[in-house]
Design brief:
The chain is mostly beta strands. The protein has a single domain, classed as Beta Barrel (OB fold (Dihydrolipoamide Acetyltransferase, E2P)). Helix content is 0%, strand content 57%. A hairpin with a 4-residue loop joins β2 and β3.
Length: 77
């Protein structure tokens, strides 16, 4: 986990399932389940997102129940 600008938190998560067009249920390393979404600019990333994939989330300390998918960390086989 890393902090940037004292406001954004970056952490890894694993996708559990897709729950909307660009919304996913993801599990953080501490076991907490959060909603993860892609931004409009990154909608093309949706074709590469699937369960058990490790992603990097950008979260804010004001709402720790959701985060924006920043990048794909690795693809699990």
């Amino acid at each position: 986990m890393r902090f940037e600008n004292d406001r954004l938190i970056y952490t890894e998560a694993s996708i559990l399932e897709q729950v909307g067009d660009n919304v996913y249920l993801a599990k953080l390393s501490n076991g907490k389940t959060v909603y993860a979404h892609t931004s409009k600019i990154d909608e093309g990333m949706n074709a590469h997102l699937f369960p058990d994939l490790t992603i990097e989330l950008e979260m804010t300390p004001f709402d720790m129940d959701k985060g924006r998918i920043v990048k794909i960390i690795e693809k699990k086989s």
